[in-house]
């Protein structure tokens, strides 16, 4: 509010009409039509009834459930009276909210890292691959609406769904709910990202490994080469098989619904099975694991003689990936939702 007031007075002090617009933004059109909520429409629309199951699975009840319906509506569906549009604007908003929450989290909990490291960590949290995994964990694709239903959503489509959902959650519930959502579904994965250096996609990582094996003769460095070796199926459901080669030797092959996806899968497989060729990968993991162990040990010693508050902060600094991401995400988000926390404190 303070920042908002400073900006408004600085930018629009001499323009009262613009100042009024800035300080009193109108609600979302769906909220404007039903100021007290639109859940009264649930019995009349099968889609809204279906979405209540998704709400139950994550433990959040939207005041305006039509916002949730819009978050899952692709632009191919077009304008409908139920959603008043597609999820593109919510996706834009959700992307910004996610960037803000991830940036604040990393800034607070990694005080010794410079901005370059923080950017790498943030990219591992908010990239399309990570968002697609969270989308799958929560089963969001089951609720997505397309004019022509797709057999399998691409990584980008699933990431867009998650961003649109975060945008709808922000509009309906506010920033605090979005922060809890990220604390449960995204931040616990960070330790694995650090161990596996997931800020680089598999193709970039494989190329970096190959460049470390360059010769000293000053010639052009050897890089991995990808070749499509098979293509099956009709145009709309085509499956490609791509092999990756290094210095004339095939490292691995993999399939995908696009050439790019098949190349990524082939690179990932090559990294997994070529430990003899790239020993630096295991060395890097050992170094990172040793460094993280050193960071944990002092905290363990302090924790034995400190309060539970210190224990909680240690867990925040060292998030761990759940064994079952899907159940973890849903149950923990239900348990940690701000309204439930308040209810618990009131009852106590």
TrEMBL record:
Its cofactor is Mn(2+); Mg(2+). GO terms for biological process: gonadal mesoderm development; pre-miRNA processing; primary miRNA processing; rRNA processing. Residues 289-348 are annotated as: Disordered. Its EC number is 3.1.26.3. It is found in: Nucleus. It catalyses: Endonucleolytic cleavage to 5'-phosphomonoester. It is an enzyme of class 3 (hydrolase). Residues 317-330 have a biased composition (Polar residues). InterPro entries: dsRBD_dom, RNase_III, RNase_III_dom, RNAse_III_DSRM__animal, RNase_III_sf. Gene3D superfamilies: 3.30.160.20, Ribonuclease III domain (1.10.1520.10). Its main location: nucleus. One of its GO terms (molecular function) is RNA binding. Residues 289-304 have a biased composition (Basic residues). Keywords: Differentiation, Endonuclease, Gonadal differentiation, Hydrolase, Magnesium, Manganese, Metal-binding, Nuclease, Nucleus, Repeat, Ribosome biogenesis, RNA-binding. Belongs to the ribonuclease III family. Executes the initial step of microRNA (miRNA) processing in the nucleus, that is the cleavage of pri-miRNA to release pre-miRNA. Involved in pre-rRNA processing. Cleaves double-strand RNA and does not cleave single-strand RNA. Involved in fertility. Required for the function or synthesis of the let-7 miRNA. This is Ribonuclease 3. It comes from Oryctes borbonicus. The lineage of its organism: Eukaryota, Metazoa, Ecdysozoa, Arthropoda, Hexapoda.
């Amino acid at each position: 509010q303070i920042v908002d007031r400073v900006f408004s007075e600085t930018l629009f002090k001499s323009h009262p009409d613009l100042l009024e617009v800035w300080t009193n933004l109108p609600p979302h059109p769906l909220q404007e039509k039903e100021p007290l909520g639109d859940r009264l429409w649930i019995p009349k629309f099968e889609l809204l009834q279906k979405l209540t199951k998704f709400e139950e699975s994550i433990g959040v009840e939207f005041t305006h459930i039509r916002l949730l319906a819009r978050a899952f509506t692709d632009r191919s569906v077009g304008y409908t009276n139920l959603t008043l549009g597609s999820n593109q604007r919510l996706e834009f908003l959700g992307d910004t909210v996610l960037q803000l929450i991830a940036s604040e989290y990393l800034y607070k909990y990694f005080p010794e890292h410079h901005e370059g490291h923080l950017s790498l960590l943030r990219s591992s949290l908010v990239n399309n691959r990570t968002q697609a995994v969270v989308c799958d964990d929560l089963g969001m694709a089951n609720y997505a609406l397309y004019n022509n239903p797709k057999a399998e959503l691409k990584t980008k489509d699933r990431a867009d769904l998650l961003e649109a959902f975060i945008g709808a959650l922000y509009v309906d519930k506010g920033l605090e709910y979005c922060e809890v959502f990220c604390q449960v579904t995204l931040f616990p994965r960070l330790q694995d990202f650090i161990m596996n250096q997931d800020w680089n996609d598999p193709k970039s990582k494989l190329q970096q490994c190959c460049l470390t094996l360059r010769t000293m003769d000053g010639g052009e460095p050897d890089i991995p080469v990808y070749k499509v070796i098979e293509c099956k199926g009709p145009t709309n459901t085509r499956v490609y098989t791509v092999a990756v080669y290094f210095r004339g030797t095939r490292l691995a092959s993999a399939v995908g619904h696009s050439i790019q996806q098949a190349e990524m899968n082939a690179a990932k497989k090559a990294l997994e099975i070529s430990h003899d060729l790239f020993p630096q990968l295991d060395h890097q993991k050992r170094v990172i694991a040793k460094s993280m162990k050193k960071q944990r040990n002092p905290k363990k010693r302090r924790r034995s003689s400190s309060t539970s508050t210190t224990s909680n902060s240690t867990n925040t600094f060292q998030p761990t990936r759940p064994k079952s991401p899907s159940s973890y995400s849903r149950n923990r988000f239900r348990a940690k939702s701000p309204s439930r926390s308040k209810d618990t404190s009131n009852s106590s």
